[in-house]
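Title: Comparing notes on inverse folding

I've been comparing how different people in this forum approach sequence design from structure. To keep things fair, I'm posting one structure and asking everyone to reply with a full sequence. Here's the target:
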């Protein structure tokens, strides 16, 4: 069992991301390229990072100073809850509004207004639930 967002966990997440057509294939349609980091609220830096090219994850592991397009932070308890139960559009809006999910880098408003990005973003939480931690 790997710690949440550790190098090992991120590599397993990358594999699950690429297997999910509602995530990778949908993002491929819009040519989505991004470096996405994940971590805990209050920490100076994220823990894990994944590079996505044309919707598919091409690398993942421990954060090592990469320039980020997205940096998502929440408490460990909230991450565990969302990973276990998923996160719908309403839950995402509530989490963001209440400050439970923070975007240290990235434009939440632009992402949520674009259904081609919002749907896959929500799906990524379900995919996290497939990774053993």
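Reply #1:
Here's my take.
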């Amino acid at each position: 069992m790997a710690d949440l967002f550790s190098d090992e966990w991120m590599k397993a997440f990358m594999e699950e991301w690429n297997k999910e057509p509602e995530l990778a294939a949908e993002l491929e349609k819009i040519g989505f390229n991004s470096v996405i980091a994940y971590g805990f609220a209050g920490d100076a830096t994220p823990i894990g990072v994944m590079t996505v090219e044309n919707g598919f994850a091409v690398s993942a592991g421990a954060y090592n100073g990469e320039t980020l397009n997205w940096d998502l932070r929440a408490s460990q308890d909230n991450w565990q809850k969302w990973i276990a139960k998923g996160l719908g559009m309403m839950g995402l809006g509530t989490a963001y509004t209440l400050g439970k999910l923070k975007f240290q880098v990235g434009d939440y408003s632009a992402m949520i207004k674009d259904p081609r990005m919002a749907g896959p973003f929500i799906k990524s939480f379900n995919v996290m639930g497939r990774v053993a931690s």
